[in-house]
Amino acid sequence: MPSAQTATQTPGARLRKAWTVERPLQIVGTVDAYSALQAQRVGFKCLYLSGSGVAASSHGLPDLAITSLDDVLVDARRITSATDLPLLVDIDTGWGSAFNIARTVREMERAGVAGVHIEDQVATKRCGHRPNKEIVSATEMCDRIVAALDAKIDPSFVVMARTDALAVSGMKEVLERVRSYEEAGADAIFAEAMTDTRMYRQIVDSVEVPVLANLTEFGKTPIYTLQDLRAVGIRMALYPLSAFRAMSKAADKVFRAIRHEGSQQNVIDRMQTRDELYEILRYHEFEQKLNALYKGEESNG
Q1: What are 114-172's pLDDT values in tens digits?
Q2: Which of 29, 59, 100, 212 could form a disulfide with 48 if both were Cys (CB 3.0 to 4.6 A apart)?
Q3: Virtual CA dihedral for 144, 145, 149, 152, nearest 10 degrees?
Q4: Active site includes 198?
């Protein structure tokens, strides 16, 4: 539940403050409101909503530009309603023309989102760690950035530019693009699928704005530590689907046990208890309020 302490700060301002206080800022992916509460409880200062996560967890679809702005907004609104932590959202290529991109940014702001990242893949995009990606020209991507920036109502709302150029055109093109994207006004840079920390150092040295490293598992980028990233100047470390992958693996084991063993007895130790669930949801606070309300009605009657 959002607190009064942060009500005077916009979500974008909270995100910008977070990446100055914690270096690198750990940004953890949450696929729903409950996992957002879990992340907040253990101390994370910023959350992330992945387009791939929305496609997989909410729609059972692959990350191939099948889901829409409205699909992502549903999950974004649920998360921002549950926590006041700043939320960074993946908007893929912006879902269309400059007018579509503008609408996307305005709707994200209305949903309480702190910032978005928009990428330079073609509209029929692919997962950033899969082969056969295609990218638009740097000029077209700069137009996307400008469209997003022009649509901002809150000046602190973050528009981050992502480039997938490494796999398509190489590191030289990456460096040229991130400089162009900064010149177009991007508030931060997301260089996808880097394979060496020296690449991050080159990017950091090429721009003045903060740079994000995507530490998604089972992809092209090694699992770097915060110390590794700090040494090359990375300001944000993204873990987009770590919890979702763990949740999915655990669910698979539980489903198999129930189906093949006829009982959940052997997987009880993998489950969150009712008390643990209630603690995160503040269930008893709600219940006490409910009891007080009904008690008041009884006394009035």
Answers
A1: 999 999 999 888 887 888 789 999 999 999 999 999 999 999 999 999 999 999 999 99
A2: 29
A3: 60
A4: no
